[in-house]
Sequence to fold (161 residues):
Amino acid sequence: DHIVVGIRDLAGAGKERVWCDIASAADDTADAFEDALFHLRFLPDDISQELRSALNRLAEDAIGGVKEYVRLLLAARHIHRGAPLGDLQAFFDLLERQHDREHATDGAERDVFAILMADSPQAKTLIVTTAIAGALEKSGDALLRTSRLVADHALGGWVAG
Fold:
């Protein structure tokens, strides 16, 4: 949160103000991961292997979204008027992959829920696992929102020249 405030102060009210929104959305992603990590310490060791595997897949999808976001940021640096068509296509491909990751976290969260319903776990396991899965899915949503803001900024600069 302190970093977001610092970015807001640096950006002021000019055209770079968009970075405040991007930083805020990225901070939502970090908050979601922090929430998942907090709840993870309460997850009982004796959960089913099927549930453990589903949580691992969800975490891998969420972390994959972070990697795609970093790639998108790097690609955004090359988006400007006159940029080669290949750079634009690569940027759009990265944005599409971010959409795919967000959809994957949605599906993986539903898989965790379905397993929980089949396992009929104790209340603690149900509450903690649902909180972890929800936070990881929320990170995917926040990463997609952040990626869209980066795309809007990069493509707006490309159009403006």
Q: What stands out?
A: The helical segments are 2-11, 18-40, 49-76, 85-119, 123-160. The mean pLDDT is 88. The two ends are 33 Å apart (CA to CA).
